[in-house]
Amino acid sequence: MKVSIIGASGYGGLELIRLLTHHPHFHLESLHTSSMAGVPIGAESNHLAHLPYILEEIDPEKIAKTADIVFLATPTGISKELAPSFHDLGVKLIDLSGDLRLKKTGEYEKWYKGASAPAKILNEAVYGLSEWNQKEIEKASVIANPGCYPTATLLGLAPLFMEGLAITSDIIVDAKSGVSGAGKSPTAVTHFSDMNDNFKIYKVHQHQHIPEIEQQLGEWAGEIDPVSFNTHLVPMTRGIMATMYVKLKRKTTTHELLDLYKTAYENQPFVRIQPEAHFPCTKQVYGSNFCDIGVAFDERTNKATIVSVIDNLMKGAAGQAVQNANILIGADPSAGLMQAPLYP
Ligand SMILES: NC(=O)C1=CN([C@@H]2O[C@H](COP(=O)(O)OP(=O)(O)OC[C@H]3O[C@@H](n4cnc5c(N)ncnc54)[C@H](OP(=O)(O)O)[C@@H]3O)[C@@H](O)[C@H]2O)C=CC1
Ligand SMILES: CC(=O)N[C@@H](CCC(=O)OP(=O)(O)O)C(=O)O
């Protein structure tokens, strides 16, 4: 299978290159840019100096002649413009942006402050939460890859929802991310001297991942109340930790909850449930496609505390995108993705 990457010079695109240049089923056919056509990828990104690729312009007709699958690692707002032409040319699409994820009328406009993608492509798009939507992904022609925070959050909450154990009001998600989650372009917020030795809350009550999380929880539970979700920037390069607090319908034990989580993910190679009284940290998934989850029942509040960690660029973006591409072609979802995390 031949694949191409649009937005190859960005953080998500670079991670896709890392995964796809030695993948057992995909041949990386071409890399595309809106601003640097003709530049070798190794000149733009020195860590890829061993690769022969030259960045090429974005010409959907030309790309469609050689690529079976196109990854859009492009900013929100750009993917919705590019997706329809590739789709019309019969290319399968995996979009890393938020453009194709929100289905309910008016939600995209409200949270992303722009016009949503055309209904035709939006209706085609399947939400690519690999572990929970595999059957739909297998048949998809367009995959809306989940956001980084929603991936950590939804994988952490799913077993409680599937079991019908969660009370669907007053859910709290307290999330933190490394700075690479903000992409390659430096800003006043991500500037080293402002970020180093610092810890920041941002987009309070306004994060664009709130409707994405509520949409999926709503699909699992029917109706849910609005979720309290806030995000923080941590002075580290990669990693997301989502700490979640959920009131339960009945008393339980940590042991019982862990059994529920282990059963829910027993056939999923990338979700690793921690032993009792162990909680994951971001470094244990660094550079990998794993999502590690720790769970405890708080007898005093009748709430479950769930801690879910991922690498934002891997399971939160490129890793899950390749997992979805594997599912799309009927391959083992873990093909080319079982590297151990980088440690220390
Ligand atoms: N970083 C993360 O952890 C995550 C990111 N995402 C999403 O993935 C997508 C990519 O993110 P990320 O790689 O971090 O972002 P970056 O900003 O690092 O890279 C985006 C790339 O898109 C290209 N681009 C910019 N403008 C245009 C345009 N008009 N047309 C085509 N290409 C353009 C740029 O490359 P060039 O100038 O060469 O065209 C740029 O390098 C985004 O939608 C983001 O929201 C999702 C989950 C996690
Ligand atoms: C640290 C940081 O800034 N992270 C970004 C995540 C961006 C992202 O994943 O965007 P979409 O999923 O909407 O495409 C943010 O919070 O907006």
Structure overview:
Residues 2-140 form the Semialdehyde dehydrogenase NAD-binding domain. The active site is at residue 148. InterPro entries: AGPR, AGPR_AS, AGPR_dimerisation_dom, AGPR_type-1, NAD(P)-bd_dom_sf, Semialdehyde_DH_NAD-bd. The chain is an alpha/beta fold and 344 residues long. The chain has two domains: 2-146 and 315-328, NAD(P)-binding Rossmann-like Domain (Rossmann fold, 3-Layer(aba) Sandwich), CATH 3.40.50; 149-312, 2-Layer Sandwich (Dihydrodipicolinate Reductase, domain 2). Helices cover 31% and strands 19% of the residues. The protein contains twelve helices and 13 strands. The strands form two sheets. The chain has a seven-stranded mixed beta sheet with strand order 8-9-7-10-13-12-11. Strands 2-1-3-4-6-5 form a six-stranded parallel beta sheet, sandwiched between helices. The longest helix is centred in the middle third of the chain and has 15 residues, at 148-162. The protein is globular and about 60 Å long. It starts with a strand and ends in a 16-residue tail after the last helix. The structure holds NADPH dihydro-nicotinamide-adenine-dinucleotide phosphate and N-acetyl-L-glutamyl 5-phosphate (X2W). NADPH dihydro-nicotinamide-adenine-dinucleotide phosphate (NDP) binds next to helix 1 and helix 12.
Topology:
Elements: E1 2-6, H1 11-20, E2 27-32, H2 41-44, H3 60-66, E3 69-72, H4 79-88, E4 92-95, H5 107-112, H6 119-124, E5 125-127, H7 134-139, E6 142-144, H8 148-162, E7 172-177, H9 192-195, E8 200-202, H10 209-221, E9 228-233, E10 240-247, H11 254-264, E11 271-273, E12 291-298, E13 303-310, H12 314-328
Parallel strand pairs: 1-2, 1-3, 3-4, 4-6, 5-6, 7-9, 11-12
Antiparallel strand pairs: 7-10, 8-9, 10-13, 12-13
Helix pairs in contact: 1-12, 8-10
This protein binds NADPH dihydro-nicotinamide-adenine-dinucleotide phosphate and N-acetyl-L-glutamyl 5-phosphate.
Protein name: N-acetyl-gamma-glutamyl-phosphate reductase
Catalytic activity: N-acetyl-L-glutamate 5-semialdehyde + phosphate + NADP(+) = N-acetyl-L-glutamyl 5-phosphate + NADPH + H(+)
Function: Catalyzes the NADPH-dependent reduction of N-acetyl-5-glutamyl phosphate to yield N-acetyl-L-glutamate 5-semialdehyde.
